[in-house]
Amino acid sequence: MTTARLTGVWAPVITPFTRELAPDPGRFVRHCRWLLDHGCRGLAVFGTNSEANSLTVEERIDLLEALVQDGVPAGSLMPGTGCCALPDTVRLTAHAVKLGCGGVLMLPPFYYKGLSDEGLYRSFVEVIERVGDPRLRVYLYHIPPVAQVPIPLAVIERLLRTHSRTVVGIKDSSGDWANTKAVLDAFAASGFEVFAGSEAFLLQNMRHGGVGCITATGNVNPAAIDHLYRHWQAPEADRMQAEVSATRAVLQQFPMISALKATVAHYAQDPEWGTVRPPLVELGPEDARRLAGELGQRGFDMPGLGTLGDPRPASEVRSRQGGVT
Amino acid sequence: MTTARLTGVWAPVITPFTRELAPDPGRFVRHCRWLLDHGCRGLAVFGTNSEANSLTVEERIDLLEALVQDGVPAGSLMPGTGCCALPDTVRLTAHAVKLGCGGVLMLPPFYYKGLSDEGLYRSFVEVIERVGDPRLRVYLYHIPPVAQVPIPLAVIERLLRTHSRTVVGIKDSSGDWANTKAVLDAFAASGFEVFAGSEAFLLQNMRHGGVGCITATGNVNPAAIDHLYRHWQAPEADRMQAEVSATRAVLQQFPMISALKATVAHYAQDPEWGTVRPPLVELGPEDARRLAGELGQRGFDMPGLGTLGDPRPASEVRSRQGGVT
Question: Fewer CB within 10 Å of terminal CB in chain B, N or C?
Answer without folding.
Answer: C
